[in-house]
Amino acid sequence: DAGVIQSPRHEVTEMGQEVTLRCKPISGHNSLFWYRQTMMRGLELLIYFNNNVPIDDSGMPEDRFSAKMPNASFSTLKIQPSEPRDSAVYFCASSPGTAYGYTFGSGTRLTVV
Amino acid sequence: DAKTTQPTSMDCAEGRAANLPCNHSTISGNEYVYWYRQIHSQGPQYIIHGLKNNETNEMASLIITEDRKSSTLILPHATLRDTAVYYCIVRVGSTDKLIFGTGTRLQVFP
Predict the structure, then answer these.
(1) A25-39: average pLDDT
(2) Which of the 8 DSSP states describes residue A86?
(3) What is the largest CA-CA distance in chain A?
(4) Do B101 and A42 touch (CB under 8 A)?
(5) Distance to chain B for A90, nearest Cα, Å
(6) Using the beta-carbon criterion (under 8 Å), do B96 and A106 form an inter-chain contact?
(7) Residue B98: per-residue pLDDT
(8) How far apart are the CA of A91 and the nearest CA of chain B, in angstroms?
């Protein structure tokens, strides 16, 4: 198994541009999570899906952020418009369900200049 | 949400056991304790989890006190590659949510 696959690994964009981060979970995992990590705030849960349905998006910072999971093998996190304070490492993780551990991807390092 | 308290940092000599403590005094009866670690710039890695009983796998052992208010992660023979930030997390109720705290930075030295 290739694990959780995130793309791109690095993204540099200008303030105001739209950014789309992508995630392919492990096949058979029915829960998917998006986290953001910064030095100041640590690892923050942004949103999670169960069976492709968003369950809890209370961690999404504001309306500029949106996440979708159109099918069991793909999810996107979009920021529009991007701002310098969005600079962080964004992790995607998947899990086969409650009482199991998550598997994290390698992350996308986003820099907004 | 049950909070966890961990020391900010710890040191351990290579080859010795690393014992990482965690307090979770407000844990509820159906909440699991999870341990993850994060090696610099990588995604967090699952280590082990448990509810009431002690657990062991190829990576570590998890000792949970009888009152479940604290636990200890044991790396039996620490190596330099075990240098990482270790997170103790209590899963939120019956949901899948894992809320990460600040963790313990473990430094294994030669």
Answers:
(1) 95
(2) G
(3) 41
(4) yes
(5) 9
(6) no
(7) 86
(8) 7
Residue A14 phi, psi dihedral angles, 5° rounding:
-90, 150
Q: In Å, what is the CA distance from B37 to each residue of A5, A101, A105, B81, B102?
A: 19, 12, 14, 11, 11
Q: Which of B32, B34, B46 lies nearest to residue A103, judging by beta carbons? A: B46
Q: How far is CA B47 from CA A39, A103, B67, B87, in A?
A: 23, 10, 22, 10
Instruction: Note the residue count of chain A.
Output: 113
Express each pLDDT in B27-73 by its tens digit: 888 888 999 999 988 999 999 999 988 999 999 999 999 999 999 99
CB B27 within 8 A of CB B68: yes
Q: Where are the beta strands (DSSP E) in A1-113?
A: 5-7, 10-13, 19-24, 31-38, 42-50, 53-56, 65-71, 74-79, 88-95, 103-104, 108-112
Alpha-carbon distance A29 to nearest alpha carbon in chain B (angstroms): 12
Q: Which residues of B touch A33 (CB under 8 A)?
A: 96, 98
- Closest residue on chain B to A56 (Cα): B97
pLDDT in tens, A74-97: 999 999 999 999 999 999 999 997
Q: Would you say A34 and A48 are in contact if contact means Cβ atoms under 8 Å apart? A: yes
- Gyration radius of chain B's alpha carbons: 13
Q: Which of A39-43, B1-5, B20-24 has the highest mean pLDDT?
A: B20-24
- Per-residue pLDDT at A29: 94
DSSP class of residue B51 equals S
